Amino acid sequence: MSFEDNKSFWEEFIQLYQENHCLWDIKCKDYRNKQKKNAAYENLINKSKEMFPDANKKFVIKKISSLRSSFRCQIRRINSSKRSGVGTEDVPEPTLWYFDLLSFLMDQEESRAAVSSIEGNNLDDQSQASGTNFIRCIKPNNKMVDHQFDGSLSLMQLKCSGMISVLELMEYGYPSRTSFADLHSMYKDYLPKELKQLNPKTFCEAMLHSLKLQEKDFKFGITKVFFRPGKFAEFDRIMKSDPENLKSVVAAIKKWLIKSRWIKSQFCVLTIIKMKNKIAYRRKALIIMQKTVRGYLVRRKYGPRITILRNIRTLDSSLKKLEEIASQLKQKASVVNEIDGLKSKMASTMEKIKLDDKMDRKAVESMYAELVAQVNQQMASLQKKLQEEKIAEEQERLRKIREEMERQKKLKEEEERKLRDEEEHRKMKVEMEARRKAEELERKKQEAADRLLAEELHKQQEKLEQDERKYQEQLEQERQDRELALRLAQETNGQVEESPPLIRKSDASRKDVNAKNKYDLSKWKYSELRDTINTSCDIELLEACRHEFHRRLKVYHAWKAKNRKRTVTTYEDERAPRSVLESAARSAQRTAQQKVAVLDNNGQRYFRIPFQRNNNCVDQGKRGWWYAHFDGQYVARQMELHPDKGAILLVAGKDDMQMCELSLEETGLTRKRGAEILESEFNREWEKYGGKPYVRPADRNNH
């Protein structure tokens, strides 16, 4: 912050400084009183803290010196202008705004300047009168009081001014002296140009060493050279001798320069090597000293702690033993927590010992003793628990032996049961094969009977056609007779009696068939059929509804196949393998009057045959399976498994449009060798792909 800022503060500061005369008035009686001056400085410090909170005595003295220095410079400018003889109007005006405020210092600055100028003039006059070449000004005391001599202060000033060295030279017999520069300027005109360019000190050394003067006849100082009595005159005579002698002197000087430079180069190299070695040696010595001292201090401070920390780390082996014992326990959760607590406590103790520098040795040892006691206590507790668990394990082992014996017994019984089941399955398959053969034999017999019946029916059909022709001829004859009778009646004005129409034998036979059926479901809606199948408990009605429902499905699928575009061949709508559909097509050629005697309408039968839905050449090698569960004559559950697709599970009453609508006899599955499977095999695959258990329609109301 400059004095231009906040002028009001600096005005108050200067005013306070003016009031304390002991700080600036050398005529004041308290000017040498340190206590008064310190008190005055305290007042200025308190004032400065209003603007500078960190102000101290050094800061105040610095500011006062800056003010007085600026004021002193202004006074010097003014006084120099006055001494130069310029007019009053040419005297420069003060540029400091606080110049007038410091006017009380004017007499202090003038008195000091007058004293110094008088003393300087007296010294000049005395030096010129005595012919002395140098003058040493000595300050006898720091208080600037006359007739008071401070010996140590004067000796220090003489040492600093070089007077001691001068006296020593005079004591050793070197009264004559001259500076290097004077000697160089005195004799450079006698030497060639390359020697003139040498610096004064090198010039003097080269001349003195090359003139065959002895080393004891002269001495070199920092800025001067000193001679014994008469040697300087000899040197002057040699330098001012004839030119021939001077040439030899110049040659000697050049030779000495070359030699001295070479010696100096060697000395510099050796000095550098010595210095490098000394620096390396001192560095190593310093490192050793630092290492030794620091090691001693660290060992003295941290030795006991390191010992305790090492002992605490040895407890890790005990903790590992605790963990091994805990791993053998069954209920080890609480024990592991306790061991973890010990670990955390050990870690916290070690951390506290490392960080707390104020902890003494007794506190560290007590903490270690506490940890050891806890570890020993935990070890005893775990060993006791381990012993108890060993006893319990022995009892458990005996119990497991008994259970294993019972399990082996059950396994043996289970194996026997499986053998019985396998035997039963084998018998069932034998029965299924026998039943298939019986059905095949019955089918052959039925086919033979069907052929005979077909021939009989053919004959009956021919007879019916002949009767139909006769009936039509009779109807035509009756119509002609009636028209003739009507014409005759009109002519005679009579009336004709209406005769009842003739009844055909085919109509009579159809009425007889309808009369034999207990239920006529041809006019029922699909929703009525579905609800009846799902809710009714009447077995005969259920069977009639199922026959009617599948009859309608056959009609729908036949109509759909008939009206499908002939150019489009798709296999996505196949509801059963093609072998099943082809078998149904062959069975459709049989007469409608044939009856099945072998099949049971209430039986549950299961079949599995290969199924390849897509006949593209790409998928020729990929074959699926078609599973069917027949409840009586019709499919109750249907499942398709393909290699590259998910399983398709269909249930009757929900997915009828996608299921096979053919009856068991129409599919011809009973005549396929190896097609029929057991119920367990079907249910295993059905449940494997998420199928729900099957409930028969007659039993659904009970669930």
TrEMBL record:
Residues covered by region (Disordered): 490-510
One cellular component term from this protein's GO annotations in UniProt: cytoplasm
Source domain of life: Eukaryota
MADF domain ranges (all copies): 12-110
Myosin motor domain: residues covered: 128-240
Coiled coil regions in record: 312-339
Molecular functions (GO terms): actin binding; ATP binding; cytoskeletal motor activity
Nucleotide-binding listed as a keyword: yes
InterPro entries referenced in this protein's UniProt entry, alphabetically: IQ_motif_EF-hand-BS, Kinesin_motor_dom_sf, MADF-dom, MYO6_lever, Myosin-VI_CBD, Myosin_head_motor_dom-like, P-loop_NTPase
Keywords, sorted A to Z: Actin-binding, ATP-binding, Coiled coil, Motor protein, Myosin, Nucleotide-binding
PANTHER family: DPT-YFP REPRESSOR BY OVEREXPRESSION, ISOFORM D-RELATED, MADF DOMAIN-CONTAINING PROTEIN-RELATED
Entry similarity comment: Belongs to the TRAFAC class myosin-kinesin ATPase superfamily. Myosin family.
Protein name: Uncharacterized protein
The organism of origin for this protein: Acanthoscelides obtectus (Bean weevil)
